[in-house]
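Hi Y.,

Following your request, here is the sequence exactly as I used it, all 303 residues.
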Amino acid sequence: MIKKLLFMALTLLIAAGCTSTHSSGENTKEQSKVQEDVEKVLEHIFTGPDQELSQFYEEHNQEEISNYYKDQFEPYFTEKYMDEAMKTNLVSSFHQKAYGNEVKMDINSMSVEQSEDKDTAYDFDTQIDVSNGQSAKVRGRVNTNEQGKITRIHYVDPQPLLHAFDMAVETEDGLFEYDRSRLASRTEDEAYQPKFPTVMPFEVDGVEIEAGPMNQKDTLLTFTFFSETGEMLELMTVKEGGISYQDLETEEVSIGEQTGQYAGKKGDPQRLMWKDGSITYELKGKVKDLSKEDLITVAESFQ
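Below is the corresponding structure, written out as tokens. Let me know if you'd prefer a different format.
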């Protein structure tokens, strides 16, 4: 009887051990699958933009851009986090910046490890090479839920990579060279094509274009240039018309072979107005350390 009981107990222990081993193996397999998914997501974020996505950006096709990112990331994200990532440009910001600077990203090295303090979190460390010869590290954490879907991506410090995209060249005057060609291509279908600056008081991070109201849609275009630090410079262009400055105290200034009107002072909002052919231009903004002479230099660079 005792031998029989011992045999039954031993059998149960062996069975429990097998079950435990099987369960442990399943968990390891699931964790490995989640880690592979995290790696795929990071590869999508830190590679490119590829030719297909670049074409969508070139065409300003927002619907196709949105569909592209949904196809890439929806299989790995929760529905809630997918919506959040699209609204905050979390998965597209590096691609947008790289495209704007005409460069591409490639992963030099990447490590992804399960966090020691949380089973559903994965810490990553990547080295990104940029096609302009720059390189940058990005570290962070990816959180998942119990089903292995991503619920959060956090970058510890993405600024080095964003700066690595920049190809701006600083001039002797302390201004920055600006490639006007992309802005010119964005306005080639407008009713008229104004000239654009080839130097700016800051490194341009983006440009917003706004046409005039219905009664001015063919005669008014406004461009707002943004810097990474939040500064802005507005360029208003008017075809076959003028810009009123009667209530301003202005002084006449030379802009190359032309004359213009300047208002303001360094440290305060400044305005510079002039006419070139049939188009009247106005530069307006408050930019740190921007002098009257700097603003005139920007105006003289228009091509």
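The helical segments are 2-45, 51-59, 62-73, 79-87, 93-100, 159-165, 181-186, 292-300.

Thanks again,
Q.
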